[in-house]
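Side project, low priority. Logging it here so it doesn't get lost.
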Amino acid sequence: MDLRLDELSAHERYKLLIGLVIPRPIAWISTWSENGVANCAPFSFFNVFSEDPPLCVIGINPRSDGQTKHSLKNIRRSGEFIVNLVDEATANAMHISSGEFPEEVSEFAQARLTPAPGAMVKHPRIAEAAACLECRVERLLEISGTRVLVLGEILLIHAREGIIDPRSKRISEEHYRPIGRLFADRYCTTRQRFNLPGKLPA
């Protein structure tokens, strides 16, 4: 089967891309609104792309009503944001926070999360998150009327105790159990891991 993307609707392209490019990491972005409401929302068009300088990129689309997402409004206003990384322990709270709540409603409150102060940025991190990346906007790329790419410089990493070895800076496979986004309400864990070359697990 060959599918020309210029002959498909945006929704059909979306379904194909999120179904094929899996699993995707989740950027659980936390910010303060202009009125001091703690906001958090997950985005799975996300990854890190460089270590020198340390950069991450998030693709943000509009809300279902066509309005700008609160996270993007807060990022544009402040020039900063925090990417919280989702693990198995926080997966359900992340999913709850994905709802389209009014701007005066805090997703932290809806998902029973705790805002904790950022160390280098003014926004709150999610205290329950396995790890957080405090970021400053490097640039915003207006791709189209439906997509903005947020390029962030990572200033600081905060991690739950036991996740990062302080000497080697290696990540503990035992203590860090991230989840990945598949499609719709489907997610996956990273519990089954293996080395290559070699026989894949059954």
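Brief comment: The mean pLDDT is 95.
Revisit when time allows.
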